[in-house]
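Retro notes, item 3 of 5
We never archived the inputs for the 4'-deoxy-4'-aminopyridoxal-5'-phosphate complex last cycle. Fixing that now. Sequence and ligand:
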Amino acid sequence: MNFDVETVRRDFPILSTLVRGKQLCYLDNAASTQKPQVVIDRLRDFYSTENANINRGIHHLGELATDAYHGARRTVADFINAFSEKEVIFTAGTTESINLVASSWGRTHLKKGDEILLTGMEHHANIVPWQIVAEQTGALIKVIPVNESSEIDTEAFDSLIGERTRVLAICQVSNSLGTLNPIKSIIAKAKAAGVTTLVDGAQGAPHLLADVQELGCDFYVFSGHKIYGPTGIGVLWGRAELLDSMPPYKGGGDMIQRVTFEKTTYKGIPQRFEAGTPNIGGAAGLASAITYVQQFDPEELRAHETDVLEYALAMLGDMQGLTSYTRASKRAGAVSFTLDGIHPHDIATILDREGVAIRAGNHCTQPLMQSMGVNATARASFAMYNTKDEVDQLVNAIKKAYDLFS
Ligand code: PMP
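Structure as it came back at the time:
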């Protein structure tokens, strides 16, 4: 289907909200996206007509719920171009997916002196789980610095990746900077050095950049709620041979073959990593969100998003006293900025009065903020339903903030 932003906007009921009499301008999409009516309907329909536990109930509803859940896995596998649907593990979100890999893969494969390579622009979700496993195993964290252009220092990367590097965990798109990392070439280099790779796709998948075969990584993770789906559901994709070699991350029902008090044997993937009752409704909702996104021509959708982002960068770039941290030559999704003399939290508060929802803070990237020499930035982040008119609304609201503070 051709991409028409006005038609798309009508699919998202919340976008017609008035905030203190002003039209809502929702620019906090990197934190969480809004949901189209089809996703809202899918959740209602699932709980109205299909709800039961999966895999065990030999009854009508149990079969419907099981079909919905495993059908969702097929939809995700197709969306990310997985080699096989059994490589798709449902989790609670990006955070849980990374914790699963760090804990299960990390504790199996890392030992004292091994190196875990991260970048200076990682979200805490792609730092802390690795620190936990580093403490447990004696592995060391190494960090690829971010340069003045908000990009990964590729020369530093070349010198940091070495014989002791076991894993590289890197975001596809920075939630704080909007930097789109050159994942393919970085992964290719890591692979050539025999390094296992995890791509944090939390901000990449929503911009339809989640082709795992194209990227060449070993693990890819993302959250449903950032791609127009429900909260509480996310994905870990991993190469089957790697997932097969990993022990369970949590134990419980549905992941076992046989349990005795002496010994328990486990199922294969994906069930081995999905102990307990999963978020069945969430998986169904995520599948409908993906199907919704897939109806559009991906080139057209991306072109629209790029158009709005570049317009925002141009408009904000013209404003006096504004420092933009979105400087990378390749970018997606977000503009991060500060204004002279106004704290980012004050910017966000004043913008909210104008109906404009942005985020202010460290965006769960404290080490990045420290390296940039700031405590916080204001961030406007965009989704497919945002428009250039909304960028104008943002710019006008920022001008008001200036007037108030000058
Ligand atoms: N990584 C990145 C790049 C993110 O932007 C986020 C969410 N802000 C996360 C990880 C964590 O995602 P979640 O809270 O959905 O688990």
